Amino acid sequence: KLTWDAYYDSHEIYAWVDEITAQFPEIITTQSIGKSTKGRELMLMRINKPSDQQKISVFLNSTGIIAGLIIFQQDESCFFRDSMKDIHAREWITSATTTWIFNELLTNEAYAAELDKFDFHYVPVLNPDGLAYTHNGDRLWRKTLSEHNSFWRCFGVDANRNFDKSFGGPGASHDECSELYHGPSAFSEPETQAVRDYILANKDDIKIYLDVHSYSQLILLPYGDTSEKPDDYADLLEKGLIMEDALRERYETDYVTGSVPELTYYASGGSFDWVKGKAGVKYAMGIELRDLGHYGFLLPANQIIPSGKETLDGFLAIFNAIRDEI
Ligand code: 0X9
Ligand code: ZN
């Protein structure tokens, strides 16, 4: 039973998925979109209220476009290079925040109308192997747990350098011992293959792709592999700023919106770069959750619910703004 006053491993998160799916069988379906290197399930929740489907198909017929379909990709194993100076931990706040958000959307009557408007495709844990390893091995682990060279001692690939957009370009490492190792080839990891295949099968429906990370309180816009911006960057920036404002309202938590190199560093082979640049999903972006580095990855669990509340505010603001536009 998740209580959001502690951080959990994937088997506990999946137990919550099963429980809430049993509680709302008419709204939620789950499916496996693949298996991790170590054989863990890569689970996707579809949160799609039947009445919504009616309503959405009307929108589809009248405007040509359906209400937003949203994917949250969880990359459980990332950290900023400059955070090496801090006490390190993992991006545990990402799954904690998004599970809280979906629990709230489903169980708090105040959000019933919001559920009518969106068809969510939600991956609670994209890197369950890495997450398990942060709980029982190396708390600082960022990568997957795949082994690509039996002659060498290092393992794991940075899943967020493994997508096929400028694969092996700036901000990724050829060194398999690096935290930023891009892998032997694009989509070498079962975790990134699962996202690729699901997106390619659903790209005409998916209007928003949101990649959730921590930390730094940033709304990251494409691209990460180049300082060139997409032609429609102004649209993404406008929506990002709407999310930024909504995130600030409740607790005055400051988020900053901008392109990846403007706000951080070059990062090639990133998931939302591929989703926008190759799969053609217009609103593909990322968010780095709390905090600004005081606790960093060791964010106390008593911040999970506040993070959930403000992030839900931000998500609803941007999803509705994009839906209104469509
Ligand atoms: O470096 C990353 O993968 C992300 N930051 S993190 O500290 N969570 O590791 C930023 C990724 C930027 N996204 C893309 N280039 N698509
Ligand atoms: Zn990350």
What does this 3D model show about the protein?
It is a single chain. With 326 residues, this protein is α/β, with parallel strands linked by helices. The protein has a single domain, classed as Aminopeptidase. It has helices spanning 10-23, 50-63, 92-107, 112-115, 128-136, 190-202, 233-251, 260-263, 271-277, 304-325; strands at residues 28-35, 41-47, 69-74, 119-122, 208-214, 218-221, 256-259, 283-289. Residues 53-89 have low confidence and may be disordered. Keywords: Carboxypeptidase, Disulfide bond, Hydrolase, Metal-binding, Metalloprotease, Protease, Signal, Virulence, Zinc, Zymogen. Extracellular metalloprotease that contributes to pathogenicity. Its cofactor is Zn(2+).
% residues in beta strands: 5-15%
Q: In CATH's first tier, which class applies? A: Alpha Beta
**DSSP helix fraction:** 25-40%
- Strands ordered across the widest β-sheet: 1-2-4-3-5-8-6-7
Tally the beta strands: 8
Question: What is the CATH topology assignment?
Answer: Aminopeptidase
The geometry reads as globular
- Our count of helices gives 10
Helix and strand composition category? alpha/beta
User: Could you give the distance between the termini?
Assistant: 38 Å
